[in-house]
Amino acid sequence: MEKLKSKNNNIQEIPKQFCCDLEYFFTDIDDTLTTNGLLPSSSLEAVWALHEAGIKVVPITGRPAGWCDHIARMWPVEGVIGENGAFYFSYDRKNLKVERVYNLSEDERIQCIEGLLRIRRRVLEEVSGCAIASDQDYRLFDLAIDYCEDVSPLDQDALKRIIEIIEEEKAVYKISSIHINCWYGQYDKVSCLKRFLMDKTGKAVNEYQKRVFFVGDSPNDEPIFRELNYTGAVANIKKFLDSMKAHPLYLTSGESGNGFREMVQVLLEKRMKYL
Question: What is the pLDDT of residues 238-261, one digit of tens each?
C-alpha cells in the first residue's frame, strides 16, 4: 500500500475501517502515556480498554530493561520494546514466563558495555551540568544522558558537545524529550518493531500496514512515523514538527496523557460503531 501523503490530520479523521481492522497498537511511553513524569490513571485505563477490545498493545521506549520486565509482567500488554530497540520482552501468562529476545550477540553486548563506559566517563568530565539518567542502573545496553529530567535543562552548546562525544566514540544516538540515549549496534525502534511483528505474526510489517498503529511525541519517533502508514502523536509534538522530516499522520488536541486518552477513545468509538 502506498504511504498516505497528508500529515498532521486531527485524530477524528482516522478511517473507521482501519479502527475495525486494528490488531497492534504500538506506543511511546514518556510524554505520550505519561504527563509531567506521572502515569495518569486515564492512560492505564486506556491501555486496558485497548486490551479488552482485542487490540494488542506494545509500548516502545528508551527506558531500561528493569522497567520493561515490570511492564511486560504487570501491564495488559502483548510485549514491550525497550532501550530503543535493544530487545523485546513478552510475558507468557499461561506458563508464567518472560520471553527475552535481544538484538545483540553475547560478544556484541560485552563490547557495547565497554564503549558506553567510555562515553559515560567523557560526558561527565567534559559537559558541565549533565548527569547520567537516574534509571541507568536498570539498563543493559543503553546509556541515557539526562539533559532535562532531573537536571536543569542544558543549553544547545552542551547538547551539541554530548552529541560530538557520542559520534567520536562511534555510537548511535537518539534524542528523546528527556534524555540523549546512545548505544552500539545496528538496531533501533523500527528494526525491533519489525522483528517483534514477524516473530508474533509470521508477517513482515508491509504485509500488516492496515492493522498496525503507532503513537509518539518526539523526534526520536520519526523513524516509525516514516515506516508505518498509520501513525499518530499527542499534541506536544507540535514544538518539534518544524525540525522533523517525517511527521505523524494524525494529531490529538490534547497533550501527553490527555492526548493518549483522546486518541484511544476515538479509535475505540469508531471501532465499536463500525462493528
Answer: 999 999 999 999 999 999 999 999
How many whole angstroms from its chain centre is CA 219? 11
Report residue 58: phi and psi, to 5°: -135, 100
User: Using N-to-C axis directions, what is the helix angle for 106-126 and 156-168, rounded to 10°?
Assistant: 140
SS3 144: strand
Cell matching residue 207: 504485509
Three-class SS state of 249: coil
* Residue 60: closest CA among 31, 82, 43, 38: 82
User: Can you read off the three cell numbers belonging to residue 147?
Assistant: 539533559
Using CA atoms, how far apart are residues 238 and 217, in angstroms rounded to an integer?
A: 9
**Cβ-based burial of 155 (10 A; exposed 0-12, middle 13-18, buried ≥19):** exposed
DSSP annotation of 38: B
Average per-residue pLDDT for the chain: 94
The residues pairing with 24 across neighbouring beta strands, listed in sequence order, are: 56, 212
- Quick check: helix, strand or coil at residue 183? strand
Angle at 28 between CA 76 and CA 105, to 5 degrees: 85
Give phi and psi for 60, each to the nearest 5.
Answer: -125, 125
Instruction: Calculate the dihedral angle through the C-alpha atoms of 255, 260, 261, 262, rounding to the nearest 10 degrees.
Output: 70
pTM (two decimals): 0.88
| Phi then psi dihedrals of residue 215, to 5 deg | -125, 135
Instruction: Give, in degrees to the nearest 5, the angle at Cα 25 between 235 and 223.
Output: 65
